[in-house]
Each structure stands twice: as structure tokens, then as C-alpha cells.
Amino acid sequence: MSTNATIYTLVASTNRGRYCLDDPECGHGLTSGEPIALLLGGHWIEGRIEHSTMYDQPGCYHSADDGKHHQPAHEAAVQDPVESAMRQPLDLFCGYYFIARDDTVCGLCTGMYVRLR
């Protein structure tokens, strides 16, 4: 199996909830089942893109309330680590994620390096 030598950077697409390569408006948009390789820990890991459609599937993630919106910007308070660990989720989201050949699941984020396979 050959891997494309071109290295792309994962960016947020202008199509909400999706990812593109290099350019959010006209870059290649990733889709379910697409074979790619991600650079993780200095190694190219081969796998594929998938999309979670139900909240009990892999690939779902939550966004936690960091409390920063409750404080005026000029009041830079040090946050208690226990309090930080107990932040409540704001929402749970379904989305795209990566499944390596060994079935390990990894979330996607902007800035990751990608090769098409």
C-alpha cells in the first residue's frame, strides 16, 4: 500500500463539524471511510476517518466549562486544580475521528499532519 508523500495540515472546514486539508474553503474535505495516515508521536499511523452518529459510539467528545467566561478579563484568578477537574460538560458532540489499523481510536484536531493513502 503506497502512501502519498504530500503532507497536509488538518484545518476546520467552513462546512461546520468537518475537517479539510490545508484550506478550509477549497481544501480536500475528509469523509467517513477515507484512508489516511496521521503523524502521531513522530510516527505515521495508518487508518481511516469515521464519523460518530450516536452519543454512545467512539468519537464523541465533550466541551467542558472552563469558568473563564464568569470572570472579568482583568481578574486573572488562579484556578483550583480540584475545581478544574470537576468542571461540568457544556455539551456532548458527535463528530469525525480516526481509527488506526489496530482499531485504536484517536480524536482529530486542527494542526495535525495528514497524508492521504
Detail the topology: elements first, then pairings.
Elements lengths: L7 E5 L6 E3 L6 E2 L5 E6 L2 E9 L9 E4 L16 H5 L3 E5 L2 E5 L4 E3 L5 E4 L1
Antiparallel strand pairs: 1-2, 1-10, 2-3, 4-5, 4-10, 5-8, 6-7, 8-9
Structure, explained:
- Helix content is 4%, strand content 39%.
- It has 117 residues and is mainly beta.
- It has one domain.
- Strands 3-2-1-10-4-5-8-9 form an eight-stranded antiparallel sheet, with no helix packed on it.
- The longest helix is centred in the last third of the chain and has 5 residues.
- The protein is globular and about 30 Å long.
How would you sum up this structure in a few lines?
The chain has 117 residues and is mainly β. It has 1 helix and 10 strands.
Alpha carbon gap, first and last residue:
8 Å
Regarding quaternary structure, what we see is single chain
Report the uncertain regions. Answer: 65-76
Tally of discrete structural domains: 1
Into which percentage range does the β-strand content fall? 35-45%
Helical amount: under 10%
Order of helices and strands: EEEEEEHEEEE
Shape: globular
Features:
117 residues; mainly beta; eight-stranded antiparallel sheet; two-stranded antiparallel sheet; 39% strand; globular
